[in-house]
C-alpha cells in the first residue's frame, strides 16, 4: 500500500482525535492484514470511490463508544441509543472527510459515502484488494481499530 495513503490516514486520525477527544492519540504500527476481522462489536463503515476505491472501517468497544460520545457531547453518556450511534458515525465521517482532503492534496480525489453503523457479535467483513489495520489507543490500549481497505486496480 502506498505510504502516502497510509500517512494521509494517520494524519486524519490524529487531527480528528485531537479535535474531538482533546488529546493526541497513540497509534500502533500500521499492518497489512488478510482478514478484515473487526475486534469489537460496533463498526462504522464509510465507503469511497474515485481515483482509489474501498472502505474505511472503524471498530469500537461499547465502553470506548460511550467514552467517545461523552467527549463529543461534553457530558456523560450512559447508553448507546440512536443519538450515540449517530455521534459514532459522525466521528468516522469526520476522519474519512479529512482523509479525502489529505488525499486530494496528493492528487487523488475520492467521494465518501454516508456512515453506516453495524453492531453485533462475531462480525465478518469481506472486501476485494488489500487492507491495512491501524490500532489506536484513545482511552485504553488498542481500544479503536481502523481498517483501510483498497480495491485492486
UniProtKB/TrEMBL annotation:
Coiled coil: none annotated. CDD domains: CheX. Residues 43-127 form the Chemotaxis phosphatase CheX-like domain. InterPro entries: CheC-like_sf, CheX-like, CheX-like_dom. Keywords: Chemotaxis. GO terms for biological process: chemotaxis. This is Chemotaxis protein CheX.
Amino acid at each position: 500500500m502506498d505510504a502516502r495513503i497510509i500517512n494521509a490516514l494517520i494524519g486524519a486520525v490524529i487531527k480528528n482525535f485531537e479535535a474531538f477527544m482533546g488529546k493526541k492519540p497513540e497509534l500502533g504500527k500500521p499492518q497489512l492484514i488478510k482478514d478484515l476481522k473487526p475486534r469489537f462489536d460496533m463498526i462504522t463503515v464509510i465507503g469511497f470511490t474515485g481515483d482509489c476505491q474501498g472502505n474505511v472501517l472503524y471498530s469500537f468497544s461499547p465502553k470506548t463508544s460511550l467514552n467517545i460520545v461523552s467527549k463529543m457531547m461534553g457530558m456523560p453518556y450512559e447508553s448507546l441509543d440512536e443519538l450515540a450511534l449517530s455521534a459514532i458515525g459522525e466521528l468516522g465521517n469526520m476522519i474519512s472527510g479529512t482523509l479525502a482532503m489529505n488525499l486530494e492534496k496528493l492528487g487523488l480525489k475520492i467521494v465518501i459515502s454516508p456512515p453506516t453503523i453495524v453492531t453485533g457479535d462475531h462480525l465478518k467483513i469481506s472486501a476485494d484488494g488489500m487492507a491495512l489495520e491501524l490500532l489506536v489507543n484513545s482511552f485504553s490500549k488498542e481500544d479503536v481499530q481502523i481498517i483501510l481497505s483498497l480495491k485492486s486496480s
